Amino acid sequence: MLCMFIHQIPSFIPALLPRFMWSKPADRQIFLTFDDGPTPEITDFVLECLNEYDAKATFFCIGKNVVENPSIIQRIQAGGHSIGNHTMNHCNAWKMDFAAYVEDFQKCEKVFAHQHIKSIGFRPPYGRITRKIYKEMNNVILWSVLTGDYNASLTPTAILESVLPLLKPGAIVVMHDSIKAFPHLQVILPAILRYCKEQNLVLSSL
Ligand SMILES: [Zn+2]
To answer: What is the CATH number that goes with domain 12-203?
Structure first.
């Protein structure tokens, strides 16, 4: 059976939902993002890789993980990277009402305020969006390229074959500094960084 994973967001979706950020106009910049951390050891692996390539990136953090790992947050900030809100408990917008969803988002905002984290925006977990999220939430940042690093049915080689050609100026690329994604992440991240440097792309935070 042929398994297909869609790595690139079809262009009609951003056209239908222009209030969200899907990519960012740029001459040479590309925007790597890491969701679901901070995670002990794994986020530090990411930070070391980024540092090696003088790359800046954006981390969409789960509030609960921020509470548990304040020292990792300090290292993200010290590295000059950006941080965004990914809810307190990685909420699924399709499985809860909007009021509860916003309350969980606000909890994450409070954690950020307490730890002096300036949020650059909100990324809905799983990319699951609703009409209310679209109409009522601000600075929502999705992506144009999904690596699928969490998907055990893909191989790192297959991911790189599909994803490297999509790494163009202005792309917002999703990876995960999570335990689930790490087997793939540890292979694809160094390769993606190397490729971006070879292509003269400037690895930037949002
Ligand atoms: Zn997530």
So the answer is: 3.20.20.370
